[in-house]
Amino acid sequence: MNVTEAVTSRRSIRQFLDKPVDKSILERVLETAQRAPSGGNTQPWNAVVVGGDALKDITAKIKAKAATAPMGENTEYAIYPRELDGRYEEQRRAVGKDMFQAVGLERGDKAGRIAQMAKNWDSFGAPVQLFTYTKKYMGPPQWSDMGMWLQTVMLLLREAGLDSCPQEIWAMYGTYMRELLGIDDDHIFFCGMAIGYRDPDAAINNFDVPRVPIRDAIEFRGF
Ligand SMILES: Cc1cc2nc3c(=O)[nH]c(=O)nc-3n(C[C@H](O)[C@H](O)[C@H](O)COP(=O)(O)O)c2cc1C
């Protein structure tokens, strides 16, 4: 698989097969992903990889928490800016609409949508979670470094035949997640990432997620 194939075959998978993932593959992927760049080589990413009974335990606890605090609790960063507007807001709405439509959920089916969203807590059936965090004092440049590392991980997972879904939904309970994972107070929880093998036939893994043409986002000068 070349880089283009890894980039274009990666998509957020929301239905995984019931198939275990070898720890040795994850170790190899994460070892290689350490080559991701970061400003000043600070390498600000940290993570806990969770599977087996440990993941079952977290899954049960977060579901219980989500039942008592459905709108989130002690969210430590704004998952989306309040000011999101224009094409950014349109794109955010569109992917939600298309996703629900792919699984046959009508606009008015609030219960169905909530049930679909709740699948996040089951890691969409994936056997592994990568929970990421960094120091609280890290700023936008280091957060962008985290993103570069995460994408590096996701592409290497593709090369290994694996799939992923980054999940910032877990940050709705950021403080609680740190508590469950034993992460100190001077750190901030970023996101989870479900890892496993995709169900290739699931409609939710096959709807189109468009991107804006580059002319809407990028400008060439001096060419
Ligand atoms: C940092 C990050 C967090 C995300 N969190 C979630 C999430 O909590 N749940 C989810 O279903 N998708 C989540 N996504 C997936 C995005 O919706 C997805 O990347 C976007 O719609 C583009 O689609 P694609 O990844 O399939 O190309 C997240 C993506 C990123 C990069």
Rg on CA atoms, Å: 18 Å
Residues in helix, %:
25-40%
Q: Mean pLDDT, rounded to whole units? A: 97
* Beta-strand segment tally: 5
Q: Given the structure, what is the number of helices?
A: 7
End-to-end Cα distance, whole Å, is: 32 Å
Task: Describe this protein's structure.
This protein is of the alpha+beta class and 223 residues long. It has a single domain (3-79, 120-210), classed as NADH Oxidase (3-Layer(aba) Sandwich). The chain has seven helices and five strands; from the N terminus they run H-H-E-H-H-H-E-H-E-H-E-E. It has helices at residues 3-9, 23-33, 52-68, 86-102, 110-118, 140-159, 174-181, and strands spanning 46-51, 128-135, 163-167, 187-189, 192-196. Helix 1 crosses helix 6 and helix 2 (23-33) packs across helix 6. The mean pLDDT is 97. The protein binds flavin mononucleotide. The site of flavin mononucleotide has 12 residues, from strand 3. Flavin mononucleotide is lined by residues 11-12, 14, 95, 120, 165-169, 191, 209.
Could you list some keywords that capture this structure?
alpha+beta; single chain; 223 residues; binds flavin mononucleotide; NADH Oxidase
Reconstruct the topology from this structure.
Elements: H1 3-9, H2 23-33, E1 46-51, H3 52-68, H4 86-102, H5 110-118, E2 128-135, H6 140-159, E3 163-167, H7 174-181, E4 187-189, E5 192-196
Antiparallel strand pairs: 1-2, 2-4, 2-5, 3-5
The structure holds flavin mononucleotide (FMN).
Flavin mononucleotide is lined by residues 11-12, 14, 95, 120, 165-169, 191, 209.
